[in-house]
Structure formats: structure tokens, C-alpha cells
């Protein structure tokens, strides 16, 4: 019993650290992308780059984004809760639902509560005000993470890859459609990451004494693949966007195709990489949060 309690204690500490780190990362993204003139300029350049090849992707992008609605979110939440209940996990069903609701409510509160100074960079969207974090990206990521929590261990890794891919695609789609700046999607994924850590703490509190944590359920290889791939994508994003700094005196509308494409592709990599890292952290810890039970 002492060993089990100690293991749960270290898991709780790890989850608190994850929540704090991801919350701090959110603050950094917000301060740099919204309250720094250079950050707003880079965001605008990346968003301007969505015109490259837009005619060919308009259809798929519209289908992805239009499929996300309040009704579809409620339906997805109901399905996720049903999966948990079918497995006899009442606390898991409640926690997964709280994760989805909490992340999406938090995003809406932040979007309308945070301020965005006008540096005269993105005049076309100045009237819209703050758009960080993205509601569509939050919907996709929260559903993906909650699904990984409730899935049986045999298909959990597959669900993590599919869910991360879906959420990353939705995040990039918001930029491709011109609905959101790239920082909006990255910030949304970090909001979901914080709520995933908080949900993990709740699952630890409700964990029964018959819980059996098995190392075979850890999916270390899959989590490492998602994490390393995500980090590499984030590094690629940083390198691509740093290359643009020398052009900061140029208005986005006056840029040539090459820098616009670098900004757009680099930002897309950053969005996908952020989701990969968030999902990797969830997958690495879920076997301790949703263990096996005897009997």
C-alpha cells in the first residue's frame, strides 16, 4: 500500500508540473504572438500565406471546419461518455466529459477576456479583436484527448495517433481558411493540455484500491514517436519563423511567394508539433490514470 501511494503521489506531482508548464507555455504564446509587434507580424505573414494553393484545399478545409458545431461536440461527448460507461468506468465518463466542457468553456472565456493591442499590422482583421485561442482547435483537441482516456488499452495508441492527426489537421485548417492565426491553434492545444493534466489528477483521486498499473500498458514507443515528432516539428517551426525576422520591415501583402510559404508551412508545423507533444504527454501517463482492475 505504501508503494502504491508513493507511486500515485509522484504521478500527481508530475501532473501538476505538466499543468503548470503548459499554462506557462500558453502565457508565452499569448505574450509573444499577441502583445509583441514582431509576433503579430509573423502571425499575419503566416496567415497571408494561406492564399498559396488555397483553391485546391478550400473544399476539404470547409468540410473539416463546418463539421464542428455544438451539436457535433455534444454527440462526440456523448459517445465518449458511453464508451467509458460500457467499460464500467463511471468516474472516467464524468472526468472525460469535464475535460471537454472545461477546455471549451475556458477557451471561450479567454477569447473574449484577453485583449489584443492594435499595432497597425493586420488591418484587415483589426475589427475582430482577439481570436486566441481557437474554439475549433479546442473542440478537436479536447475530443481527441478525451477519446484516448476512455479507449481500451489495446487501441489506445492508435487512437492517440488518429486523434492527434485529426486535431492537428483541424488546427491547420483554421489557418488555411483564414479563420484563425497560427498562434490561436497552438494556444488552444495548450489549454486542452492543462485540462488533461487536471483531469488526470481527478482520475487519481477517484482511483480504486483494486487498480493495477501495468508497464505493458504504457505505450512508450508510441508516446516517444509522438513526442519526438512533435518536438522536431516545433523546432522546424522556430527555424522557419526565425528566418523571417530579417524581413520584418516588409508588409505581409508585399511579400513574395517564398517567405509567405515559409511562414505558412513553418506555422503549420508548429501547430501540428504542439498537438503531437500534448498528445504524447497524455499517452505517456494514461496507463497510470486509467489502470486495470482486478475482478
Descriptive account of the structure:
By secondary structure, this protein is mainly alpha-helical. It has one domain (2-293). It is built from ten helices and two strands; from the N terminus they run ααααααααβααβ. A two-stranded antiparallel sheet has the order 1-2. Helix 5 (90-113) runs antiparallel to helix 8 and helix 8 packs parallel to helix 10 (257-289). The radius of gyration is 20 Å and the shape is elongated. It starts with a helix and ends with a strand. The mean pLDDT is 91. It comes from Micromonospora deserti. Keywords: Membrane, Transmembrane, Transmembrane helix. This is PA-phosphatase.
Key phrases:
295 residues, elongated, PA-phosphatase, PAP2/HPO_sf, PAP2/HPO, two-stranded antiparallel sheet, 1% strand, transmembrane, single chain, mainly alpha
Average of per-residue pLDDT values: 91
For the secondary structure, the number of strands is 2
Class by helix and strand content? mainly alpha
Are there runs of 5+ residues with pLDDT below 50, and where?
A: none
Order of helices and strands: HHHHHHHHEHHE
Q: Largest beta sheet: what is the strand line-up?
A: 1-2
Please report which band the strand proportion falls in: under 5%, 5-15%, 15-25%, 25-35%, 35-45% or over 45%.
under 5%
In which range does the helix fraction lie?
over 70%
Determine Rg (CA atoms, Å): 20 Å
Whole-number tally of structural domains: 1
The description of the largest β-sheet is: 2 strands, antiparallel
Instruction: Please state the overall shape, judged from the principal axes of the Cα atoms.
Output: elongated
Protein name: PA-phosphatase
Transmembrane segments: 12-33, 64-85, 92-114, 134-151, 158-179, 185-206, 218-241, 261-286
Organism: Micromonospora deserti
Pfam families: PAP2
